[in-house]
Sequence to fold (408 residues):
Amino acid sequence: MEKAWETLQTWKERVRQELDRVVAFWMEHSHDQEHGGFFTCLGRDGQVYDQLKYVWLQGRQVWMYCRLYRSFERFRRVELLSAAKAGGEFLLRYARVAPPAKKCAFVLTRDGRPVKVQRTIFSECFYTMAMDELWKVTGEMHYQNEAVEMMDQIVHWVREDPAGLGRPELSGAPDAESMAVPMMLLNLVEQLGEDNEELTRKYAELGDWCVHRILRHVQREGQAVLENVSQDGKELPGCLGRHQNPGHALEAGWFLLQYALRKGDPKLRMHVIDKFLLLPFHSGWDPEHGGLFYFKDVDDLCPTQLEWDMKLWWPHSEAMIAFLMGYRDSGDPALLHLFCQVAEYTFRQFRDPEYGEWFGYLNREGKVALTIKGGPFKGCFHVPRCLAMCEQILGDLLRRLGPAPTGS
Fold:
């Protein structure tokens, strides 16, 4: 117990200090004081290299600031909340490019003019998360109303009207489901239902549906998690069917652990740990250089994605959360060991001790491939969410263990 206490305490301090440094980087460099919202295309030292604003990253940063504000006393700062509200108002004014259908842009100019729309649900999902967190922090009902309206629109697109996203039905297109869709919806169910019995009841069936759909991605007689399956839950042919995304599987894993904890379902918890934590880690970890591959092929064929063997920031962030949450819920020391293994690699390879924040893109050997700290896909989200959640879980574990052992 003494060794476990020391491990947890050491990581709690490292994670806390790193969270402070990461948040300081975004607060110093990303705020657009003129138009509201955030610059996310930031170079190594925080210099803005492009003023385009990506809606899903705007929503993520609003959510992150609000979550920090209400979860940690040291982040209960006026400037943090003011920036979050300015970002939320920017989204309310400009994100929706077709208000009757509530479709959001993917990219806006600095002053809010639409540049590009994606035919997916992800900008809308992070818009919803931002609005719900703003409501939880401010109590202003128009934010919650906006979150619920958008949530219901997203569910309508996914379950009733996929064509409403503007994707044409092509005769040769595979009837495929990506795991990203049900796992994102499950995350939204958790978000909106937190401390809200009415919305918990409203979206209970949706949460169960999401879990069922995610679990169908366990294929090959339970020996692999595949990113894409058919709409009836079968393996697809070709590269699409063999595709594995270890980071997504691990992220889905901790979403499922939250669901299992809320449902009081220890059988599901053990299944999730076995299939969504251990399987993707062992198939995705690079035995030669360390770190998680970005993509894998379930038959060990060469993936077609050129970046398949790169090491990216976000799968490692999700792995840290997943293994620490799994350890908290099961008490299995092997999961704490895996958390430490991933966290040591992550802190050693990704963090920038000179300018703060993390590099996002490493080559297979772990050398920095791109020096940017933010861009169209990397913003103020995976890194601070990981650090904030790990700090909270580590604190819970230490409180469970009690005072420091004698001699520590």
The mean pLDDT is 96. The longest strand covers residues 48-50. The CA atoms of residues 2 and 406 lie 8 Å apart. The radius of gyration is 21 Å.
